[in-house]
Design goal:
Largest sheet of chain A: 4 strands, antiparallel
Strand content of chain A: 15-25%
Number of helices of chain A: 8
Distance between the termini of chain A: 31 Å
Oligomer: homodimer
Shape of chain A: globular
DNA sequence: CGTCTGGTTGATACGACTCAAATTTGGTGG
DNA sequence: CCACCAAATTTGAGTCGTATCAACCAGACG
């Protein structure tokens, strides 16, 4: 009894990979585009939970595509403090173009155990050369990433601890929804309160208190690695959440592939 | 008696525009490359201090290049709070590729009166097609922008108010230095304490106190729109500043134009 | 069954905010 | 050149949000 009534209908067809689902929030892809994205998953790698995928100071080479699990980009201070600067979920790409820089200025760590695909620069160039629609969608994706970073700055700089936590949870929920990883009003949510603390610039203790308050207010429940949002609209208000930065409304529809 | 002894020697040649100086922190440009960058300044626009260049919700069209003055990207919350998410100084480009998005998710405001150049998408495409070295440098520049956003997240999330202010000032000083806008250990610094507050997520009152403390500690002086840093190394330590994110060490030198 | 990681609770401390007023600076027009 | 005004900075007193520290508890796992 858990048919995913909310995901895109997909009768019989092979399941679209998360990255395709995400890019289709921008423009409709052709079967050929999707197949090309499928083919990016040739060079797989598995990473254990809590290991680093790549560390500050190393030389960036391939692009990574998250297939399964959660990861985070983070930066650390000499005094040991850590800031998570973005969360990566299935369908997210990291380090497009990064070969231009000589060394990483931040690290990427696995939150859960991870399945990622390594994509060489050549592969990526071939993809964008042969699939201009995908190329455009990748630019859109990169711009959305940047917009998300800006929204996080707003979050850290101006929102109260309460709205800050609410905002983060809601963003993740919506991002997971676009890649088909929600069921109704809930989704897996493997980040620990410690991770949430590092992402919001709060302490784990305070995150815990905010989560309890949010729960008491009927805005969300987080338990056993599972998030449930009883009332999206109420949470949206509490978080002062404006979804415009996610640019999810098919802005590139003029490029849509004919069905 | 104000020969700028610290800028790149430039005997008799026409002065390099700020954007060229900046890109040359990545790779040495040819005379032709520089000339092409010069030609980007055909469509000029002047903006008064404290006016907006473009507002959230508007349709992004051209790319802007800051020629003179300071600007900032910012986002606001329904309750009126404002977060500056980046500061723009001469040589900075905004919204490369932004035409892909249908609407701006943030605004750009002038801090001082501003001279900017408007660059059409076609102009930009011609430039990158004809000047691959510049194209690479622009990619580098965009990556540095993103790295800077990440560093700001670290700043807001993990540094104390004291280091946070120190870090911001030092970053600006170094960025201005790469475009030749410092004289020795000082530079113009037109941002108000209010601007600094909005950029650091502090209140103006508290920024004021931190500046006084930094001054008392001999780390910097800010007065009459002018910044002076007596001891860069001491400030670097206090700010826990790691310059790696600015990627200023000619990482693309393998692409250098022959002199 | 014991260990470990993550979550929860309470008491206390402090960094940063708020509010309000005074002062200085910079710009403008007489 | 001075008088005036608005904007920016500075100061002080009091408060509040979030951090800190230290236990304790609950599941997950070997």
């Amino acid at each position: 009894m858990r048919t995913s009534t909310l995901s895109t209908p997909n009768n019989g067809a092979p399941p679209r990979p998360a990255v395709a689902l995400k890019l289709e929030a921008f423009t409709r892809l052709s079967g050929d585009d999707v197949a090309a994205l499928q083919r990016l998953t040739r060079n797989l790698r598995t990473i254990e939970a809590r290991r680093d995928l790549i560390r500050e100071g190393e030389v960036p080479v391939q692009t990574h595509l998250i297939l399964k699990g959660w990861a985070c980009r983070y930066k650390s201070l000499p005094d040991g403090k850590r800031q998570i600067v973005s969360l990566l979920v299935p369908g997210d790409l990291c380090d497009l173009n990064n070969h231009v820089l000589r060394e990483m200025d931040h690290s990427i760590g696995a939150i859960t155990s991870l399945k990622v695909s390594l994509i060489s620069r050549d592969e990526m160039e071939a993809l964008t050369a042969e699939h201009p629609r995908v190329a455009q969608a990748l630019i859109w994706d990169a711009l959305v990433d940047q917009a998300t970073q800006r929204e996080w700055l707003l979050n850290l700089g101006q929102r109260s601890a309460y709205s800050r936590v609410a905002h983060l949870m809601l963003e993740l929920f919506l991002r997971l929804r676009t890649v088909g990883l929600t069921i109704g009003q809930s989704c897996d949510f493997p980040a620990t309160q410690n991770d949430l603390a590092d992402a919001t610039g709060l302490t784990a203790v305070h995150v815990n208190r905010m989560l309890q308050e949010l729960r008491a207010d009927g805005l969300l429940e987080l338990e056993r690695r599972r998030l449930f949002i009883p009332d999206l609209e109420a949470l949206r208000t509490a978080a002062m959440f404006n979804p415009n930065y996610l640019h999810l409304d098919h802005e590139g529809r003029s490029l849509d592939a004919s069905v």
